[in-house]
Amino acid sequence: MQATIRWQGNVCFEAESGSGHKILIDGPPDHGGENRGPRPMETLLLGMGGCASFDVVHILRKSRQDITDCRCEIQAERAEDEVPAVFTRIHLHFVVTGNDLKENQVRRAVELSAEKYCSASIMLARAGVEITHSYAVEAA
C-alpha cells in the first residue's frame, strides 16, 4: 500500500492513494488554512469509520441479511492541553437499515469488526485509545 502527499501551499495538501484517488487535507483559517478539506486527524477518523463500516456491511451481506443502508456515526475525544493531541476515546455507533434484519446478526457483525477485522480501530486500540461500539437496527 502506498500514498503520496503533495503540498498545495499554506497548510493545504493533496493526498493521493495508491489506487489513484485524491482528497484535499487542509487546516483551519487560524492556522493558515483555507478550510478546503478535512483536517489530518479528521481523515484518520474517516478512514477508521470507513474500515469498520466496510466490515459490518460485508459481514451482514455474507450472512444474507437484506441490508439497505448503514451509517456509522463517530464521536471522538482528544487529549486536552497536550502535544501531541492524540485521540483518547472514540465511539462508533452503527445505524443499520434493512428488511427483516436479525439484531443478533447486526450485533455479531459489529463485534467481529471491532475484535477481528477492522485494522484501523484495532491498531488505535492497541495504541491505547479507548474504542467503544454500539448499534441500532431500523426497518427499511
UniProtKB/TrEMBL annotation:
<dbReference type="InterPro" id="IPR036102">
    <property type="entry name" value="OsmC/Ohrsf"/>
</dbReference>
<dbReference type="InterPro" id="IPR015946">
    <property type="entry name" value="KH_dom-like_a/b"/>
</dbReference>
<dbReference type="Pfam" id="PF02566">
    <property type="entry name" value="OsmC"/>
</dbReference>
<dbReference type="InterPro" id="IPR003718">
    <property type="entry name" value="OsmC/Ohr_fam"/>
</dbReference>
<protein>
    <submittedName>
        <fullName>OsmC-like protein</fullName>
    </submittedName>
</protein>
